[in-house]
Amino acid sequence: MAAPATTARTEGVTENQAVQSATGSLVELTPTPGGLALVSPYHTHRAGDPLDLVALAEQVQKADEFIRANATNKLTVIAEQIQHLQEQARKILEDARRDADLHHVACNIVKKPGNIYYLYKRESGQQYFSIISPKEWGTSCPHDFLGAYKLQHDLSWTPCEDIEKQDAKISIVDKLLHQPVALPTCTEPNFQGLTH
Predict the structure, then answer these.
(1) Which stretches does the entry tag as region Disordered (predicted)?
(2) pTM higher than the cut 0.90
């Protein structure tokens, strides 16, 4: 009588080892889980229906596909953020170069932040700043007009076409800075102080 039970137990273990090698993720077998003997170790150690193994393999494959797709989506978001940061860095460098060039333009007056200056070019190629606009010159404008720029308080230059947009941004920041508490004091996300 003992021989058939041993054979059955050996067949179950061999069968489970084959299943483990096929899937690589089955739980180890123990004859007394949690220190309790099971009623029928033969039935609990069987691999069961072969279709169960197929379903298990499909589930593992599906999990791998979802994990790969999830990682791809997250990496795509990071790649887009990197591109956005690269674009911002490029614009910052271009603006810094333009600001440096404009600070080296000839000017016979002391430039004061908050004022608009008009850039002209002489026939000799020299560029210079003036406080007289092309409208004020009228038809007697002596040189080519290149553009108008506002000198900001941080000594950066804002092109004429961007002055309104830049002033609106600065106004919003000023409002936030002059509020008694710019951001609410709470631990949870709250944008109440930013919307009013």
Answers:
(1) 1-22
(2) no
